């Protein structure tokens, strides 16, 4: 290993340790609860869980007693259902950003537990679990794919087999830099299945950290359905609300 890589590795580990074992994943303060999700009492009180009122299709929170959000009324998806645990907003953004960009792999344990607990009480099913792949270059730079780390923890907790089923066709601009329409075009046809046998005839649970427009998970679902997955469910930690 090159010296520079060793040094980077050391700092990444040190950073992980700083956030271990009991810092709140949301605000970073010392955790004063025994929450398995590592949320302090202050954050727990106001944590923006999606709650009971959500779109039965895309999982976004909706105000009022409707089955579907405005967007889903006339939109078709390749996935069968998507669910998310909390809203992606100013409060929860740091969770995702710290997890993603500062190498805090340990976040995966707390957040993976959140996913498996949610799954146990949800209307989702799975024969196998998989994740949204990350472009190789980005994965090398970051050291890990956060969606994969979540899926690994989820699989450990639930005993549902993990399959590394999806691949990206080409490097594309990062979705977060694009508008809604551009996002759809950007990811179109961008996912392929590594080995059809992994998903053929199976109910597949696809894990991602954040779902924004749903364009990425929908393209993944297209590839999974092409490979004859019988159903595709999507589970993410966070979901943007009211923006698609
Ligand atoms: Zn907190
Ligand atoms: Zn919807």
Structure keywords:
four-stranded parallel β-sheet, binds zinc ion, alpha/beta, 244 residues, globular, 14% strand
Main sheet makeup: 4 strands, parallel
The ordered string of helix (H) and strand (E) elements is: HHHEHHEHHEHEEHE
Radius of gyration: 18 Å
Number of helices: 9
Poorly predicted regions are none
Shape: globular
What is the total tally of β strands?
A: 6
Distinct ligands: zinc ion
Number of domains: 1
- Output the strand order for the largest sheet: 1-6-5-2
CATH class: Alpha Beta
Distance between the termini: 43 Å
Descriptive report:
The protein has a single domain, classed as Rossmann fold (3-Layer(aba) Sandwich), CATH 3.40.50. The strands form two sheets. A four-stranded parallel sheet has the order 1-6-5-2, sandwiched between helices. It is of the alpha/beta class and 244 residues long. The chain has nine helices and six strands, in the order H-H-H-E-H-H-E-H-H-E-H-E-E-H-E. Bound molecules: zinc ion (2 copies). One zinc ion is lined by residues 55, 57-58, 60, 68-69, 71-72.
């Amino acid at each position: 290993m090159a010296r520079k890589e060793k040094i980077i590795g050391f700092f990444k580990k040190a950073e992980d340790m700083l956030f271990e074992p009991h810092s709140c994943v949301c605000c970073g303060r010392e955790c004063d609860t025994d929450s398995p999700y590592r949320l302090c009492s202050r954050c727990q009180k106001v944590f923006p869980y999606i709650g009971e009122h959500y779109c039965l299709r895309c999982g976004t929170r909706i105000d009022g007693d409707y089955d579907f959000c405005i967007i889903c009324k006339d939109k078709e998806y390749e996935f069968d259902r998507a669910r998310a645990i909390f809203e992606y907003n100013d409060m929860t953004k740091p969770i995702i950003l710290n997890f993603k960009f500062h190498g805090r792999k340990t976040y995966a344990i707390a957040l993976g537990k959140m996913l498996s607990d949610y799954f146990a009480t949800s209307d989702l099913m799975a024969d196998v679990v998989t994740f949204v792949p990350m472009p190789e270059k980005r994965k090398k730079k970051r050291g890990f794919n956060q969606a994969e780390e979540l899926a690994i923890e989820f699989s450990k907790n639930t005993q549902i087999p993990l399959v590394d089923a999806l691949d990206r066709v080409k490097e594309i601009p990062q979705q977060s830099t694009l508008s809604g329409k551009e996002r759809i075009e950007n990811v179109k046809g961008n996912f392929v299945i590594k080995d059809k046998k992994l998903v053929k005839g199976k109910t597949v649970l696809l894990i991602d950290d954040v779902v924004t427009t749903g364009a990425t998970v929908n393209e993944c679902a297209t590839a999974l359905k092409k490979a004859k997955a019988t159903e595709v469910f999507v589970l993410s930690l966070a979901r943007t609300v009211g923006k698609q």
